[in-house]
Write a structure and sequence with these properties.
Order of helices and strands of chain A: HEEHEEEEEE
Order of helices and strands of chain B: HHHEHEHEEE
Radius of gyration of chain B: 27 Å
CATH superfamily of one domain in chain B: THUMP superfamily
Helix content of chain B: 25-40%
CATH topology of one domain in chain B: THUMP fold
Number of domains of chain A: 1
Strand order of the largest sheet of chain A: 2-1-8-5-6
Oligomer: heterodimer
Number of helices of chain B: 5
Largest sheet of chain A: 5 strands, antiparallel
Number of strands of chain A: 8
Strand order of the largest sheet of chain B: 2-1-3-4-5
CATH class of one domain in chain B: Alpha Beta
Shape of chain A: elongated
Strand content of chain B: 25-35%
């Protein structure tokens, strides 16, 4: 039995590492449907650890030349520097993704307690809602 | 009974260990997300290209005078070369290709392709003077639309190195000129800074 314990002790850190690395790919999601009063602003948290350190606030949107322009504030709640990445996705009135895979993950450095505005412009004027994904790097 | 169990456990551990070692030796090819942040080396990479294109397109499409111009019509633009003033070999045409594609797909601008002029001339000559194409269906010479705007720019860099840190700063400048008046209608810059530090167990 002693040997089993030894083996478990040996493997436990490996398991923990794999669980932790699994977490780093998920993040926080902000979904905005400016035309829909009930679903105008939603925040989905897939990673509690990240949500304790980073918050998304002030989801603003407007139309510029027919294109949806959005502005969100990302705040670092800790006193340490954080390296993040964010990506916008855009959807039309029927919920279909517009110009999928066009927007890329953008790296972002946030200093301790710093707030930064991230801005996105819809790829064309059919866009009615958007999604912002934020994840740790 | 206990001994047997222990032997089995040791055997399994050895097998698992040797499998791990073997895995380390083999080559593994995997598909990755093309939009993922890429930090393989400090050189100009896909994430830099994507960041530059996104900033330029967003900026141009929301600049108030450009919004005004594109409200009722889709102006025609041509893309001049982006000068690469960095010490790296960078395919700047790839950056302008991405920017052009996005602007075109936004439905706000149209483009003419100066790299295809010779091919188009050859095809038009064949249709009009070759004697093989029905005159009624031949595309007429001299009916192309002239570009109203020209897009051009620069990519420059500042590289600094110490014994264990390398710092690269890129600056991409893009301008749109009204061809007839020579006035620059829009311009914007994108700055990118990257550092590479040698780690304690550096390669």
């Amino acid at each position: 039995m002693k040997n089993h314990h030894g083996l478990i002790r040996l493997l436990a850190p490996l398991l923990l590492v794999s669980i932790l690395s699994g977490c780093s790919t998920s993040g926080i999601e902000a979904i905005g449907k400016p035309d829909d009063a009930d679903l105008a602003k939603q925040l989905l948290i897939h990673n509690d650890a990240l949500a304790k350190k980073i918050t998304i606030s002030e989801m603003r949107s407007r139309k510029v030349g027919g294109l949806l322009e959005v502005n969100l504030t990302l705040t670092n709640l800790t006193s340490r520097d954080k390296t993040l990445a964010y990506r916008f996705s855009w959807f039309d009135a029927d919920g279909f993704e517009v110009e999928a895979e066009t927007d890329a993950w953008t790296p972002l450095n946030l200093h301790g307690a710093q707030s930064v505005s991230v801005r996105g412009v819809a790829p064309n004027d059919s866009v009615k809602s958007y999604r912002l994904n934020v994840k740790g790097q | 009974m206990l001994m047997k169990k222990n032997r089995a456990v040791i055997g399994l551990t050895l097998i698992a260990g040797s499998l791990l070692l073997l895995q380390g030796c083999s080559n593994k090819v995997a598909y990755q997300d093309a939009t993922e942040v890429e930090t393989t080396t400090i050189d100009f990479g896909s994430t830099d290209l994507q960041q530059i294109a996104a900033k330029m397109v967003d900026s141009l499409l929301t600049f108030p005078p450009i919004v005004e111009v594109t409200r009722e019509r889709r102006p025609v633009m041509f893309v001049d070369k982006i000068k690469n003033k960095t010490t790296e070999h960078i395919d700047t045409e790839s950056i302008t290709d991405t920017i052009t594609t996005r602007l075109l797909r936004s439905g706000k601008f149209r483009f003419i392709d100066m790299t295809k002029v010779a091919d188009v001339r050859e095809q038009l000559a064949f249709q009009n003077r070759g004697g093989m194409v029905n005159r009624n269906t031949a595309a007429q010479i001299g009916r192309q639309i002239g570009a109203e705007y020209m897009m051009y720019g620069n990519l420059s860099s500042i590289v600094k190195k110490s014994s264990d840190v390398k710092d690269v700063y890129y600056k991409f400048t893009l301008k749109v000129m009204h061809l007839e008046s020579g006035i620059i209608e829009w311009s914007d810059e994108k700055e990118i800074r990257k550092t590479r530090e040698k780690s304690l167990f550096g390669r």
